[in-house]
Amino acid sequence: MTIHRIGHEISVLGDHLEVPGIGCLPVNAFVLHAAEPVVVDTGLGLPDRDFVNTLGSVVDPEDVRWIWLTHPDRDHTGGLFALLASAPRAKVVTTFLGAGIMSTERPLPPDRVHLLNPGQSLDVGDRLLQAFRPPLFDSPATMGFHDEKSAACFSSDCFGAPMASAEFAEGDSAGDVKDGDLRAAQLLWATVDSPWVHLVDPHRYADTLAPLRAMDPEIVLSTHLPPAAGLVRQMIDTIALAPGADPWVGPDQRALEEMLAAFEPGHAA
């Protein structure tokens, strides 16, 4: 994992997954250094990751007061229970549905949960975090937030994009990617992660982008994209095209067998 600092208020804990046929997918968690520190998502749950140890290099887990779970998919919850054990004062911010989904694997202690809905706000001591549902999502429990004080939008999966390499995936700026490459990667991710977007009324979908345009944050922090400063209008224009983008079709069994055969000894490249 890599660590990037954005000003004095935000730390990015960057990681990635290599996804065959798609690319290197960024998997970020964040720390908002508010008066009551907020950890946003908790990374991958793979055996070789130690989220709490990495987090400890930017904030003392005992100081963490809030764990904002943008949704309960496993690439967002890997270090959650270890962090709850190390952060005795922290509460998990999620929706009623998010807490319910988590309970199918391991129940969250009710006294460690703070339920919030899109449209509501969370007071973290020196600012209010405004919760919203991003226009693209793969879980009905998804909830991002806008922090007006740092001018940052935490968008969960929305705006994600697989990168061409691990270096780009864990880089400190989505602006390092060529505009055309970034646009293509974001549209690919939109069709992979939110396949329902091809079924929606384009005009009603366009209406869901209006709050983001009004928000006009200086930086977008997506779980699956390097930090994107000064790119929000460009990126909104990109995801506006998602309903008309080519649907993504994943590998089938034959493709899987061909991939497995490629790893066999003596296979010709």
Walkthrough of the structure:
The chain is of the alpha/beta class and 269 residues long. It has eight helices and 15 strands. It has a seven-stranded mixed β-sheet. The chain has a six-stranded mixed β-sheet with strand order 10-11-12-13-14-15, with no helix packed on it. Strand 14 and strand 15 (228-229) form a beta hairpin. The longest helix has 15 residues, at 179-193. The model has no long low-confidence stretch (mean pLDDT 95).
Distance from first to last alpha carbon: 31 Å
Tally of alpha and pi helices: 8
- Fraction of residues in helix: 25-40%
The low-confidence parts are none
DSSP, total strands = 15
The shape, in one word, is: globular
Write the layout of secondary structure elements.
Elements: E1 2-6, E2 10-14, E3 16-19, E4 23-26, E5 29-32, E6 38-40, H1 51-55, E7 66-68, H2 80-86, E8 91-94, H3 96-102, E9 113-115, E10 121-123, E11 128-132, E12 144-147, E13 152-156, H4 166-169, H5 179-193, H6 202-215, E14 219-222, E15 228-229, H7 232-239, H8 253-262
Parallel strand pairs: 6-7, 7-8, 8-9, 13-14
Antiparallel strand pairs: 1-2, 2-5, 3-4, 5-6, 10-11, 11-12, 12-13, 14-15
